Amino acid sequence: MIWRFGLYESTFEPQWYSHWALLAILVLPIFIGLLGAFFTPRRLFPVALACLPILLAGALLIVDYLQVGLLRWQWDIAGVELSLRFNGLSGLMLMITQWVGTAAAMYTPGHLQLTNPGKHARWLWPLMGVLISALSLIWLAVDLLTLYAALELMGLAAVGMLLLSGKPDALKAGMRYLLLALVGSLAYLLGVALLLGYWGELDLKSLVEVVEPSPVSWVAAALIGAGLALKAALFPLHGWLTPVHENAWTPVSALHAALVIKASLFMLIMLWGILLPDALFAPRLVAWLGMLAIVWGGLIAWRAESLKTLVASSTVGQLGYLMVAFPLLLGSAVSPLPGALAWEGFWLQLMGHSLAKAAMFMAVGNLIIATGESSIKGLAGTSRRLPLSLLIFGIASVTLMGLPPSAGFTAKWLLLQAMVMTQQWVAVAALLIGTLLTAAYVFRVFRYSFDETAPRHQYQPLAPGMDLIALCLALAAFALGLLAHLPLALLQGGGA
Amino acid sequence: MITLLLLAALLWPLCVAGSTVWQAYRTPAASRDYFPLLWISASWPALLLAFSGEVQWTIDAWMLGGYWELNTLSRPWLAFTALLWSLAAAHARGYFSAEQRKAQAGDQGAQRRCQRLALLWPLTLLGNVLLIIAQDIASFYLGFALMTFAAYALVLHSGSNEARLGARAYLALAVIGEGLILGGLLWVAGSAETLTLKGVREGIVAADDGALMALLLWLGFGVKAGVIGLHVWLPLAHPVAPAPASAVLSGAMIKAGLLGWINVLPLGVDGLSPALIQLGNIMLVAGLAAAFGAALYGVWQRHPKAVLAYSSISQMGMLTAMVAMGLAAPDVWSLILPGVVLFAAHHALAKGALFLGTSISEHMPRWPQPLLFALIALPGVSLTGALAAGMLSKWSVKSALYEMHHEGLIMLLTWAAIGTSALVSVCVWRQWQQRHSGGSDAFQWGAWLTALIAALVTPIWLPLPVGSVEVPPASEWLSLSWPFPVGVMVVVVGVLIGAGWRRHAVVQTLPAGDLWWLYSDLTLRGLRALRVIARACEKVKMASVTFSLALERTLMGHLKRGLFAEAWMRHHGSGLMMAFAVILALLLMWEGLR
Amino acid sequence: MIASIDYVEVGVAFCLVAAALACLFDRHLKRASSLFLLFALLMSLSWWLFDAPGLALAELVLGLTLTGGSFFYALNAFPATAEKVPHYDRSLHRWSHKVVRAVLALAWSVMIGGAIWFLLPDMAYSPTEHPLIIAAVVIVATAMGAFALHRHMLRRLMAFNVLGSGVFLLLAGMAGTMPGSQALISVGLTIAWLGTLLGVLLIRQLVSLEGLLALESDSDATGHAQ
């Protein structure tokens, strides 16, 4: 865990440009977001141009990491120690965040133009900036205080974005999400309080050295686990997820499903890795819940009436795949090879799902905008008129189904290998059933869209680039599967 | 040079077929000549090839690796086959002249029929040639299958109801036969890992289930060669096919079955398993049963070509018995093989001449009728072994059997010859009854006469190894020729008795095709039973579909109700979170304090 | 001196628990909001007792003024007819619902209490040594239970705030007032206020769109519950 999450002293100082790059990735999104609120971009290109420096800064950090290894920053502000680190894993997460964020930002002008939501839509930009900054901070932070602040910031920004659509349903769903997210963070804070009270350490690197199994660490792990599981929408605490996604704007849903819930999961796995180095049963409980999640999410998505519910429910199932890997990631009982395979499979699945889910939400958003219908039945006859959007949906679902050559396939392959090695046959069965269910709900969409008997509707033409961005994301999920060795090498660079 | 000839032998029929197609598109119907000299010449390169010496070819690029050979067996075989094809083609030009005139006059049906025949004739020939020279499984099977299926059109030619029935019987049995052959070949090839026919022979000897493989192959080729039980297509197809087609069917293609046996069965090999020897005995019995049964049944037929078909079955029965000796008494085989080849060649030409003769009696040239019918009968007389090549071939078989002391078989074969002569007499008599004059053509009778002469002097032109044919000593002539007069006497007496009692009606209703009618009746009953079973199955299917639909509805209902749990989870999110934390804490405590 | 402080602490702790319970379980919304103000004042007092004047000030500003003000801001938006009839949360719960919540709250208090028992060994000898921590445990467990129990959005928001205060109190009680915990609490207070503000804005929007009833039902957007 210490190596995997980069909780050790760095050998070299970061290069001079890394400090600036760090500043850029944390501050620039907020700044550009504020600019966006003032200038409200109507076109795709200014947005792309504005995102460029952030992407460049992220790339610079990775270059530096490849050169000098782990990067660490530490500040002491009024007696409070704040520390950040940049290793392969945070680099990967940062890249995914920035690229998916950029795609969502570039998608937004077209979406806003077509849906015409009113004046308050301008606040989407700063909220998006805050969200990206908070996410970047979560990937980098290694002290409990920064993590808490970033988590809360991210949560509030996410709620704010979800509320912008302004429909009563969205407000209700958003209120539920807000309350649960706040309470979830309080549970996390309660756990932190116990840790701080007992060991007096907020910095994870110091905590890792002093922590030992005791009732305090167990209760703290339970509280942190429950709070973060609620925020990460892990089954059975996922209830708030579907209505939230259903009523939010497309780019917001995409960002939320792709990144926000992943951040809580990331923290969960990192903190449990520190607090529960030898636990056996708690990860197994999560894994069993994960199997249920795979089946349940698949069933819900299969019977869903509305397109966005389908996509949101599929997130529940896909998170199940990640949960199933918990026993292989945590605990010292796992032999090294399956442990390493599961570790790689876990993050590959997470990244692949982020890209594919964002693409899927955009494809579905395009379909809904074009047809003006949000139900699956409303898709009838779209196979002729909107083949590109359906194609993107198909490519994204290939990743979700885990068919080759997508990232989903590579990830599930790795996970399956690890599970077969450790003889977790139930988990293998759950994985396969999940694939079947995914196929079932995906083909349900196609079945309706290939209905040729439907009357011809007048379709709203899409803004330029909306399909293209989604297609790029979906293809990126493919590329991630084909070039899986690159991210995996980055993941191992930290010494897994 | 000889390779060029080989290429020509295989490609020339293809070119001929191509030219027929070309002509069909280019030449107007009125001036179209379906059977020109070019068409007749399709088999000439093959004939030349047969007389140009022994040689081997190995062609790796061909399918699974081609291995072709002209040896002591395939040379004479190719010779008589190609000769018969050439003569039959020449005869066909005369035979179809009336139909061609009709086609040129604008009869669509005649045009189609002529076109079909002209196209598929060279293809059938090609298959026949290929299977004779092939020594690897793939080429051999390709040739055999091509010949079998292309010949379908030859049987079907006239398109009448009888022709359809005959063609259907032919096709049904051919498909069964091809299936058996393919199964047998694949089985042997798989178990012995071989691609050549020689490997097949060795594989059958070596394999544990060699007898079963041999049985499959025997029956498969037996369809062509008219093994009793599988022979039913012969008397149905021959009468309806055009005379030249009947000639090649009965003369050349039937012999392909025989060649198949000789090629794949381990004949004359020492140390066969008891099961294979047992198979040889079964073949022997089946062959003799065919030899006698066909004669007994055939004499009652009205149609001369049906009579000839039964004669073919009878003759092939004899050949089957001889081949069976290769399994049952392997030491005989090397002695008997030249006799078998000569017998086959002579029978091919003689039966060809007899079939061509049926068209002569229908379109008699203005010759003296006694001379004409004497000529028509002549190949039949030779076939009984009473004179010329027939006597030589009989003798070469008999002498081999004498040498190895199989007198019982000799006696049976001699008695079978009585049946042959009876059949020939009946055939000639029927032709006499149904004779017609007019419509004769020089090609027609020319080819017939040539075939007749070639049949009588078979040993002279057949490229057999030197010294394998010898003239029987004068003392044996009587023992070879007595079955002919006896057979004729039997027929004459029978006809006289029948005329006296005036009871033709009973005996003449025996239909051609004998067992076919039993088969078709059994098949119909079987189909009826199947239909009943199918109906029952359909009911079961309907019931299960209804049940499954109901089940699906119920399950979907349950699922939909079950999915309300989602709403429950949504409402109790915070409670669930509390419970989750408590459970996690308990679990960790329990594990940690254990 | 020590004894007097103890009495003050016990008294404050008792008052905190009483105010929290009253605030959590009063159906009269305006009264509950006023009780929350009282609770925040007591919180500020307890920060003073913890020797953290900065936090006490922050609590006064963020907790009392801003957060408490937010609740009244939300109540202000309720329709004018409410002038005569006071705003009540009229939603009723099945008893099984209540029992389960009570059991869960008990379980939480036992869980947290157990951890604290282990964490502060002197608690084992004299439970009254840290009356504020005990009060905090009770407040946290009860607020959590109330949060899970209530349907009314405003009351849930209030329960969240009480819960937050309890957590902060626990944090300060266990970790002392070292810079780290002070920073955590300040961040927490700010976030709680921001969250409450967001929630209040949301409630106002919802009331203006759908009326008061929308606040009481936790009904689904998808509409296939209840």
UniProtKB/TrEMBL annotation, chain A:
Transmembrane ranges, per UniProt, are: 20-40, 47-68, 88-109, 121-141, 147-165, 177-199, 219-241, 253-275, 281-302, 309-330, 350-369, 390-413, 425-447, 468-490
Q: What is the top-level taxon of the source organism?
A: Bacteria
Per UniProt, which keywords does this protein have? Cell membrane, Membrane, Transmembrane, Transmembrane helix, Ubiquinone
Subcellular localization is given as:
Cell membrane; Membrane
- State the GO CC annotations: plasma membrane
Keyword Lipoprotein in the entry? The reply is no
**Which InterPro entries is this protein grouped with?**
CPA3_Na-H_Antiporter_D (IPR050586), ND/Mrp_TM (IPR001750)
| Membrane topology note | Multi-pass membrane protein
Residues of the signal peptide: none
Does Cell membrane show up as a keyword for this record?
Answer: yes
Q: What is this protein called?
A: NADH-ubiquinone oxidoreductase
What species does this protein belong to? Vreelandella andesensis
The organism's taxonomy opens as:
Bacteria, Pseudomonadati, Pseudomonadota, Gammaproteobacteria, Oceanospirillales
TrEMBL record, chain B:
- Alphabetized UniProt keyword annotations: Cell membrane, Membrane, Transmembrane, Transmembrane helix
Task: Report the InterPro entries cross-referenced here.
Answer: CPA3_Na-H_Antiporter_D, ND/Mrp_TM
Q: Is Metal-binding found in the keyword set? A: no
Q: Does the keyword Glycosyltransferase apply?
A: no
The cross-references to Pfam families, in alphabetical order and at most eight, read:
Proton_antipo_M (PF00361)
Residue ranges crossing the lipid bilayer per the database entry: 77-96, 117-134, 140-157, 169-190, 210-234, 246-269, 275-300, 307-329, 335-358, 370-389, 409-430, 442-462, 482-501, 575-593
Source species, domain of life? Bacteria
Q: What is its main location?
A: membrane
Location within or outside the cell? Cell membrane; Membrane
Q: Name the membrane topology term.
A: Multi-pass membrane protein
Q: What region holds the NADH:quinone oxidoreductase/Mrp antiporter transmembrane domain?
A: 134-413
Family membership noted in the UniProt record: Belongs to the CPA3 antiporters (TC 2.A.63) subunit D family.
| Protein's name in the database | NADH:quinone oxidoreductase/Mrp antiporter transmembrane domain-containing protein
Organism (species): Vreelandella andesensis
TrEMBL record, chain C:
- GO cellular component assignments: plasma membrane
Q: Mind telling me which Gene3D superfamilies this protein's record contains?
A: 1.10.287.3510
Q: Does the keyword Secreted apply?
A: no
Which InterPro entries has this protein been placed in?
A: MrpA_C/MbhD (IPR025383)
Q: Which domain of life is it from?
A: Bacteria
**Which regions span the lipid bilayer?**
6-25, 32-50, 56-78, 99-120, 132-150, 157-177, 183-203
Report keywords, A-Z: Cell membrane, Membrane, Transmembrane, Transmembrane helix
Q: How does it sit in the membrane?
A: Multi-pass membrane protein
- Kindly list the places in or outside the cell where this protein is found, as annotated in its UniProt entry: Cell membrane
* MrpA C-terminal/MbhD domain span: 16-79
Q: Do you know which Pfam families this protein is assigned to?
A: MbhD
Q: In its keyword annotation, does this UniProt entry include ATP-binding? A: no
Q: What is this protein called?
A: DUF4040 domain-containing protein
Q: Which organism is it from?
A: Vreelandella andesensis
